[in-house]
Specification:
Radius of gyration: 33 Å
Structural class: mainly beta
Strand content: over 45%
Number of strands: 62
Distance between the termini: 112 Å
Number of helices: 6
Largest sheet: 24 strands, antiparallel, barrel
């Protein structure tokens, strides 16, 4: 093999061997930590590669939060005091700039004060030190937003036991006494109480969804020119991939076109057009109260025992929640991305699968198992020029799957494989713990060469933590099927069992090919964490299928993962066997990944029952505005070794790069790529150019301004408010308005609530404040939401009230003072303090009268000099002092 390689590239075999072996040694040693090197030396744990988003639950399964950000360190996990205290209901305030967290636990008498400068924790009057021998605080760090302490400190300082399940990305809280959040839940569960919202909802007013003829558009463009050559011939290929998204008359519209030119074919290679309306709270189509309407190129919904999720053209209407898991055993993940990108699917931080996007611009992960509890999925999109973007999906499988008074439906009408396709599913809860469903479908069974119609019935229910589901299906051709499913947790494990019985039954899921006659299928899986340090997560899946004529097949799959610091180890093993020995196969892959700042090193080894198959090494690096990667794959059976390399330069408005692929036969390909994205900023009236794709996301155009006339619109004498810092809560991100008060917020996840608030420290003038605490927006793909953010000016008035007794002047305590507007209405009132001082704040601009209470003057037989004072608060606000009064008898 090496001789074939060296002959192709024209260098000596011995030299290549030395180079190859040296490269492998360097990559292997990159995973080895020298014994003299401190694991944390020169590297802060508060870094992106150490982040993990955790779900927080009580030990009884009660969810507290779905988005606590933790950081991994050598001793465990760092968790935020402020965020976690809010989830638990503790009255603790955090000041990161001072390194302080103070407040109370359970009751106001039980005070707590954590000082990261002194490295002390004062708990109910007792001071504990956590200073390390080197003078730093042991297991505690400060960020710009919060204070972080190790998980062990939570169990020592708070009345709870805290366990971090890193495999499931879950924090489990076991209270030692009733927590405030539990008391709140008890009160909410009382008859007549209505839950107002989740703890993660700050209660900001939602920006109305205004329909316009055209919003956007967003354009993602990728151009590539490639030359492919081998010993026989050379071919050139040009490809243009375009994604265009916009909102047209309230419809989210997306178009994809892949154009190419080569010696064999030119023109449109793939195209797709889709339109959708989505609303999380329903209300579409009047009495149908739909949450989703899709037109043209759509995803036809799955139907138990009958059909999977698949692409087609037509119409889909549904009132299911947008993130609803309609079949709790498995889930399909489908979506759009530019050709040439790679998509990695992680479940609870374990890599499940990887796909490269083809010319159709789609990814499709099928039959991904869902386990009882929280299933945190992460989709990593890796661009050919070093681009990276991440999407999170959190799907829960528990007793909340069945809800009282639930009534849902999904209807699909369309064409697939040039044949009519329709399906409908209806679900109705008949008790607090039981729901029934019914479905109809007409499908084209392409490989069987016929069309068939189906009817389906199902029942889903739960008893405590046990989920049960049964389905039955009938086909017009005479066959039938029955399926029973169950999922339940047991201690630290999640178990699932599914049995399917088929009686001369064919559908798109079973017996869909000629000559196949499956009788039944038994599936089971168990997922658990081995209680060792570091934790080891493992999942076992087993499937047994029986066919006619006593033929059967057995498959077994195991995934095991752990991490040691920033090194992640994954092993996957699969076995397939049957009644015929020739059908048996064993395959596995061992993979090690290490994250070092913005670099990623990966080593992989694939093997089968006959021996080693291939090994590969990959390195990805990002430095400032450059990104590069290299992958080397060596086959043990003598097949041609492969090398892939890429480098790119990221500019403010585009990404330019090149790729090289070669193997030991002398075949190679070189490609040049350029990609960019354009979005329209309606308030700035200019185009925003970005190197990362934006068409699959929404955006917000924001303008902050001084609203002098307080009408919420920038007009008249209103002026821009520059350098105002805005915080996007869900991304913990800050952005600042420019000199015109403008800011553009890009790449917002569609149909996910986003909360914005103003950083009060950026309001330099103390007399200016935001007209609202914050706003909530629901982004839409291809739409830029306009946000006009008014700031209002205020005035302050203070003065002193004195009482004259003869020649003696006394400061009068407890005297009521009124602030009266131009219409004679008492706008505010206050009382003087022990120093005789009164104070009015947050006063809108205008003319006012300040006077002591006439009623109290009469009752105390006093008269005032003067009786009242006129005060003018100008439009820019003002602090008016010296509004004093002298009272005499």
């Amino acid at each position: 093999m090496l001789n074939r390689w060296t002959k192709a590239v024209g260098i000596g075999s011995s030299r290549l061997k030395r180079t190859w072996i040296g490269a492998l040694i360097v990559l292997v040693c990159a995973f080895c930590r020298p014994p003299w090197q401190d694991a944390s030396a020169g590297h802060s744990p508060i870094a992106e590669e150490n982040e993990r988003i955790f779900e927080v639950i009580l030990n009884d399964g009660t969810p507290l939060s779905e988005g606590i950000l933790g950081y991994q360190v050598s001793g465990g996990w760092l968790l935020p005091i402020g965020e976690l205290s809010v989830a638990l209901g503790f009255g603790i305030n955090v000041s990161p700039s001072l390194g302080l967290a103070e407040g109370f636990i359970i009751t106001e008498e039980r005070r707590l004060r954590i000082d990261l400068k002194a490295c002390t924790a004062e708990i109910h009057g007792q001071v504990r030190s956590f200073r390390a021998p080197d003078g730093s605080c042991n297991g505690a760090y400060t960020t710009a937003e919060d204070l972080l302490i190790e998980a062990q400190h939570w169990s020592q300082w708070f009345p709870l036991e805290l366990v971090v399940d890193s495999f499931r990305s879950r924090i489990i809280i076991t209270p030692k006494e009733t927590l405030p959040i539990q008391r709140k839940k008890m009160r909410a569960d009382l008859p007549g109480n209505v839950r107002a919202g989740s703890a993660s909802d700050p209660g900001y007013p939602e920006i109305p969804d205004r329909v316009s003829p055209l919003s956007g558009p967003f354009l993602d463009q990728q151009l590539s020119l490639q030359r492919v050559a081998n010993k026989a011939n050379t071919a050139d290929d040009f490809q243009s991939d375009t994604v265009l998204s916009s909102e047209i008359l309230g419809w989210e519209t997306r178009a994809f076109a892949s154009l190419g030119k080569s010696a064999s074919k030119s023109g449109l290679r793939h195209g797709r057009l889709s339109m959708a309306q989505k609303r999380a709270d329903g209300g579409l189509l009047g009495p149908m109260d739909a949450t989703r309407i899709e037109l043209l190129d759509v995803s036809l919904p799955q139907l138990s025992l009958i059909s999977p999720t698949q692409e087609g053209r037509g119409l889909v209407i549904s009132n299911y929640p947008l993130d609803y898991v309609d079949l709790f055993g498995t889930r399909d993940f489908q979506g759009n991305a530019l050709p040439g990108w790679e998509v990695e699917l992680y479940q609870n931080n374990v890599l499940l699968s990887r796909q490269e996007i083809g010319e159709n611009g789609r990814y499709d992960f099928r039959d991904i198992p869902l386990y009882y509890g929280s299933n945190q999925f992460r989709l990593e999109f890796l661009g050919p020029q070093g681009q990276v973007r991440t999407e999170y999906r959190n799907l829960r499988i528990d007793t909340s799957h069945v809800k009282p008074d639930q009534r849902n439906y999904v209807i699909a009408l369309g064409v697939r494989d040039l044949a009519p396709h329709y399906s409908a599913r209806f679900e109705q809860s008949i008790a607090d713990a039981i729901s029934v469903s019914a479905g109809l479908a007409q499908l084209q069974l392409t490989e069987l060469g016929r069309q068939d119609q189906f009817a389906q019935l199902g029942v889903t229910g739960f008893a405590e933590n046990l989920l049960l589901s049964s389905s039955a299906a009938l086909s017009k051709s005479g066959g039938n099927a029955l399926q029973l499913k169950s999922q339940f947790p047991y201690r630290r494990a999640s178990l699932s069992i599914r049995y399917t019985r088929l009686n001369n039954y064919s559908s798109e899921l079973f017996n869909s090919r000629p000559g196949v006659n499956q009788i039944d299928e038994t599936l089971g899986d168990i997922s658990f964490v081995v209680p060792v340090n570091p934790g080891v997560g493992t999942t076992w899946e087993i499937a047994r299928k029986r066919y006619a004529e006593d033929i059967s097949s057995l498959s077994l799959r195991n995934r095991t993962s752990t991490n040691i610091g920033r090194t992640y180890l994954n092993h996957e093993l699969s076995y397939n066997g049957g009644t015929a020995s020739t059908d048996s196969s064993l395959a596995g892959r061992l993979e090690a990944t290490q994250l070092v700042r913005r670099q990623q090193l990966r080593l992989g080894l694939n093997y089968t029952s006959t021996g080693l198959q291939f090994t590969d090494a990959e390195i990805q690096m990002r430095h400032r505005n450059f990104a590069s990667s290299a992958q080397l794959r060596y086959y043990f059976d003598g097949s041609a070794a492969q090398l892939h390399a890429s480098v790119s330069r990221i500019f403010p408005g585009a990404t330019l790069g090149g790729q090289l692929s070669a193997d030991a036969t002398g075949a190679y390909s070189v490609a040049g790529l350029v990609s960019f994205s354009i979005a329209r900023d309606p308030l700035a009236r200019r185009w925003q150019i970005h190197p990362e794709p934006q068409a699959e996301f929404g955006a917000a155009s924001i303008r902050t301004f001084i609203d002098n006339n307080r009408n919420g619109v920038m007009d008249g004498t209103d002026r821009p408010a520059p350098e105002i810092r805005l915080r996007l809560h869900q991304r913990n991100e800050m952005l600042t308005t420019d000199q015109q008060g403008l800011a553009f917020l890009a790449r917002l996840q569609p149909h996910t609530p986003m909360d914005l608030s103003i950083d009060q420290d950026s309001l330099v003038n103390p007399l200016i404040r935001s007209a609202s605490d914050g706003v909530r927006l629901i982004p839409k793909a291809g739409k830029t939401t306009e946000i006009w953010w008014p700031l209002i000016t205020n005035g302050e008035i203070d003065g002193v009230v004195e009482l004259k007794n003869g020649n003696e002047l006394n400061l009068l305590n407890g005297m009521t003072v009124h602030l009266i507007d131009s219409r004679g209405t008492v706008l505010m009132k206050t009382r003087t303090d022990r120093g005789g001082t009164f104070f009015f704040s947050s006063i809108p601009p205008g003319t006012y009268q300040v006077t002591p209470s006439f009623t109290e003057l009469f009752e105390k037989q006093l008269h005032s000099k003067p009786l009242q004072r006129q005060v003018v608060i100008p439009s820019e606000g003002e602090i008016v002092s010296g509004t004093d009064f002298l009272l005499e008898r």
